[in-house]
Amino acid sequence: MLPFQTLISINKSAATPVYQQIANGFIVLIRDGLIKPGASLPGSRQMALLLQVHRKTVIAAYDELFTQDWITTIPRKGVIVAENLPEIKPRSFKATTPIPPYAGNTGFTFQSFPAMPATTIKPGKHRLVINDGFPDIRIAPMELLLREYRRLVQQPAGKRAASFTNLAGSLSLREELVTFLSATRGLNIGVKNILISRGAQMAINMAARLVLKPGAVVLVGEPNYFLADMAFQSFGAKLVRIPVDENGMDVDAIEKICKQKKPDLLYIIPHHHHPTTVTLSANRRMKLLELIRKYKFPVIEDDYDYDFHYAGGPILPLASADHGGNVIYIGSLTKSLAATIRIGYMIAPENFIREALHLRITIDIRGDSLMEEALAALFAQGDVQRHLKKSVKLYHERRDMLAALLQRELEGVISFHLPAGGMALWAQVNKQYPLPAIAARAAAKGLFMSDGSTYSRGSNNYNAFRFGFAALNPKEMEEVVQLIKNSIE
Amino acid sequence: MLPFQTLISINKSAATPVYQQIANGFIVLIRDGLIKPGASLPGSRQMALLLQVHRKTVIAAYDELFTQDWITTIPRKGVIVAENLPEIKPRSFKATTPIPPYAGNTGFTFQSFPAMPATTIKPGKHRLVINDGFPDIRIAPMELLLREYRRLVQQPAGKRAASFTNLAGSLSLREELVTFLSATRGLNIGVKNILISRGAQMAINMAARLVLKPGAVVLVGEPNYFLADMAFQSFGAKLVRIPVDENGMDVDAIEKICKQKKPDLLYIIPHHHHPTTVTLSANRRMKLLELIRKYKFPVIEDDYDYDFHYAGGPILPLASADHGGNVIYIGSLTKSLAATIRIGYMIAPENFIREALHLRITIDIRGDSLMEEALAALFAQGDVQRHLKKSVKLYHERRDMLAALLQRELEGVISFHLPAGGMALWAQVNKQYPLPAIAARAAAKGLFMSDGSTYSRGSNNYNAFRFGFAALNPKEMEEVVQLIKNSIE
Fold first, then answer.
1. How far apart are CA A114 and CA A117, in angstroms?
2. Are residues A196 and A318 in the same domain?
3. What is chain B's alpha carbon radius of gyration, rounded to the nearest angstrom?
């Protein structure tokens, strides 16, 4: 007889009832060939003694196995393993772990996709973090948002369920966005021009997938937001890099390319370009709009940081002008609240939104519809708008504070242009101090910061990182700058 | 002079400051060619009178335009529109809406993807809803979950940020899943075998994208979960439909295909198959595992409903046996909590998970990491496990109640097999009562229910729908059945 007491492990504090654990144990033994079809199992009394459980538990386990067709009872022979299972070849007998560990590698081959740029620093439980431009969750109206969420959970079923059924996202939130985007960005749109996505990233991903075929040419900035690059490359696109200077992307260079061959997509971040924080000038916007209307190529306008502007007002987006239906405008509410609330949007002609919905449902059926409804309520009550005013003021102060600190403490080490808006500053580190070494020393001191590798490719070593200032309060900021200073050798 | 008072609209209650609205208005007029480069603008005093705002507001607007390079000031000539803008052709003069409405159609062409099966009933603000198998959010531990979320928001920055950095999802949640999936499903895995996704759908989508090339052959059930079908088709795959009977997918039919040509993927729902609710028998599981090991084709085992079993225990998943690294196991916590909490997981060999991460970040950087951490805390405290016990008991009762109600009230109209588990019953409607007509009448009476079109394709008209019972309390269930009864003619 098999040593069932060692082969079948029982954990009385597990969520699975003991009888079921026993039944599962038998199934593994049968499947592994340790018990063969036709073999007799010990009677319930004997098994109960072996496993040190109540006899009723064993009976329940046998009932379970019977229900599932693993065993049968034969008069005068007792419980036997069913004969009608496929033939099983016994395997070598070393059954200390009855359930095999998951295979380390697949038995099949599969495709590969562009990997994240390798970084030298692994994120861990550091005490302090410099993010690359995220808001301060501590000042976000999370309390209000979660209270609203709780309220919606308790709504009558029909009303609550109604919010689940809009594939384009909560109707209330789209209605609020129509008003908000018109007032702040001059967008003249209706709810059918809006698709709510998971952050801006999913909107970029879907737009790219709709317009790109393998081999397609996408114009992006040099440098560019690396997650957009990765999305385009994952669809087999070829990136053509356009220089970015203090006035944004070089529109003349774009024109030159159009004259040769119309690109399949242009990806542009007109405000506070990622990573360099420069803004596309009014002049270049005008010129670019002409090119877009003339050559009719699709444009993703990623305006993720529009609401955060400290020097004068932001310039109206390309999407607010006559672009002949060629601009897909993408934004995010993640930046307005907290990194964890990943709610973004795509604004596009209705025919494009309709097609994007076919993709949306296959990627992630829908978002957290109650979170979207809760956010819509905060818009309707003016809470989001109030929060934006408050945080623009605060982040403006933090930007100025960081600039002053860097000038005072790290002159000659870090140089930068004061960004007109956004939540990060493009910190260019003097090349005699390699960023990976600084970041490694900082990590050892409890500060997680970028080693700059996400933006450096091949010979293009910027030795620079995005210094997110929005989520650091004055005390943290002083500490962080001091830690960097102490990490320079 | 242009009628600025009608061309520039001011909304004093909007979030955008009035001076900025005025500046934006001018930009539109310049861009639209209504004001030409070199043209003079009225002085601030005159403009203030025209627009009926304070003169200081106009000065601020002009300052803004000056900062953005739209205007310059020339001594003794006053404010003029900058000359160095690209040449603008004036457009026809009918400027009642200064900002053009978003183009109705794109100026470019793009790809199309499989659409949702067309349904005749539009979801709206119905009082009652029959969903296709979702839990009752009213009994979910949402209060605990949101309380935990709130607690995490207030954590120290470093600790909180640490949870953002795991692309595979919250480490705590993956650790909890290692224990939970071992105790309930016999999965022998580590955290590196787990990727947290947005619901099961995103995991299906990523797994499919990794293994499918255009023209690939995917074996699916007839009928099958339509959102999985759509995901496979969106990657250009060809679906080959395998019959599903009361013991699940016909494994002999799968073998027959393997003998001709190895399929590129098998998608299988072994417990409470969607839509029919049948369970793959132990026999067929054994046989299928042999095929998988022999032919080495990738398998997506979608076990979304495993935790909800009422008749005996569930059968251990394929993933718990020796499958040679060919099974990708996908599950969801959405079913354990609420439709809005879209947290699912993919279990696979480590090399597959690593590659899936390259896709994950391009689709949706990461999930709501604080929600994942909050859920991990509920697992650690045993709240999820307690909730599962409670809900299995409750849904068991609701299943039995619905079965009794249907037998009493709708015999001869709706037939069904009692499902062994899950949250829905496959309600097959007598074909003399076309489901679209019933659903239309029910909708008019305030009940939203499926018209069955999601599962009927071409000549295959099942005239059936998934009757979700989990989210209906006894009163609602009686009412819903009565409404269906009254919708039959």
1. 9
2. yes
3. 30
DSSP A158-214: HHHHHTTS-TT--HHHHHHHHHHHHHHH-----GGGEEEESHHHHHHHHHHHHH--T
Predicted-complex ipTM score: 0.84
Domain boundary among the residues A381, A401, A433 is at A381
* CATH at A210: 3.40.640.10
Identity of the residue in A27, A150, A188 whose CB atom sits nearest the CB atom of B146: A150
- Residue B311 or residue B135, greater confidence: B135
- B172 dihedral zone (left: phi>0; alpha: psi -120 to 50; beta): alpha
The reply to whether A102 falls in a domain is no
Residue type at A243 in one-letter notation: P
- Taking contacts as CB-CB distances below 8 angstroms, the residues of chain A near B367 are 342
Q: Chain B interface, mutation test: which of A28, A35, A91, A110, most B Cβ atoms within 10 Å? A: A110
Total domains in the fold of chain B: 3
Q: Is A444 exposed, middle or buried (0-12, 13-18, 19+ CB in 10 A)?
A: exposed
Q: What is the pLDDT of residues B240-290, one digit of tens each?
A: 999 999 999 999 999 999 999 999 999 999 999 999 999 998 889 999 999
CA nearest to A16, candidates B186, B277, B273:
B186
Each residue's pLDDT tens digit, A319-360: 999 999 999 999 999 888 888 889 999 999 999 999 999 999
CA distance A46 to A55: 9
A123 found inside a domain = no
Amino acid (one-letter) located at B413:
V
Residue whose pair of structure tokens reads 């990491």 in the numeric block: B369
Domain of A401, in residue numbers = 128-134+386-486
Q: Which two tokens stand for residue A485?
A: 């200073």
Q: Are residues A418 and A301 in the same domain?
A: no
Q: How far is B137 from chain A (nearest CA, A)?
A: 7
Q: Are residues A232 and A281 in the same domain?
A: yes
Shared domain for A406 and A325, answered yes or no, is no
